[in-house]
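Example record

The entry below shows one chain as it appears in the dataset: sequence first, then C-alpha cells.
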Amino acid sequence: MSDKLRIMLVDDHQLTRVGIRMLLESQHGMEVVGEASDGASAIALVDSCKPDVILMDVSMLGVDGVEATRQIKSRLKSSRIIMFSSRDDEEAVKRSIAFGTPRNSDSIVADTPMLKLEQMDIRQVLDKCRRELKQIADAKNIEIIEPSLAQPLLAYADAKAIGHVVSNLVQNAIKFSPNGSTIAIAAEQVNGRVKISVRDQGCGIGPEERKRLFQPFSQGARGKEVSSGTGLGLYLSREIVVACGGELTLVDDAGAGATFVIVLPAENKKARAQRNQG
C-alpha cells in the first residue's frame, strides 16, 4: 500500500487544477488521486478516491465548495479539507469553519513543477487553443486572429503545460473583451527565443492591479465582476512558464486592452552551447 498522501483537487478552472497537480507532484510523498470541476462531481468521486486531503475551491457554480464540504464530511470524516478562495466572503468563512475546515486566502506553497521539457511546435499549441475556444469566442462575436506560420516554430518546453497557459490567457482575453472585438495572437522567434503574445481590446489593467497581478489568490476588480475564480490562474501560468525556462509578463498598453507575452527558449541549454561552440 502506498505511503503517499492522497490528495483530491476540486476547482472549476482547469489550469488551476493542472498547476496545483504539477506543484504537488513535484513534492515527495504526495499523490493526486482525483480531480473534480464542481462540488457535485467531488461528492460523487470521493468514495472511490478516498483522499486523505481535499483542496476545495469555495466559489463554484451549482454546488459550491462549502456545501460540497458539508456533504463530504458527513460521509468521509477522516478526510481533511482545505478550502481556498480569492474572495473575502465572511459568510463562506463562517460556514467553512463550522465544518472544521481550514481556509487559505493569501498564500500557497509552491516548488518547481515537474515538466516534460522537449522540442515542441508552437503552431500545434495555437491550433488546439483556437479549436477549443472557438465556441465561447463565437458566443461574443469575438474574432481571434492568429499568426500565419508556414514553417514550424520550435520552442523547448512542456507542450501540454504551455498549451494550458496559452488557453488560460486567451480565455481571460475573451472574458474581459467587449462583444464584437478582436483578440490578436502573435508568435515569432526573436534572438534565439520564442515569443507568444495575446492582446485583447478590453478595459485594460490598472496600475494598482498590476502590482499584485501574478500573486496567488489575487483577483482585480474586473475579474471579480465576471468570474468566481480562485485568483490562481496567472500565478500558476507564470510558475509554469518560469519552470520551462521562460518569462510571462504584462505589456503596458496605456489602458488600451491588455497584452500578455510569453517568452520561451527555442532549444535546450546543451544544444545551444554546442551550436555556439560550433
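Notes for this example: The two ends are 52 Å apart (CA to CA). The first strand starts at residue 5 and ends at 10.
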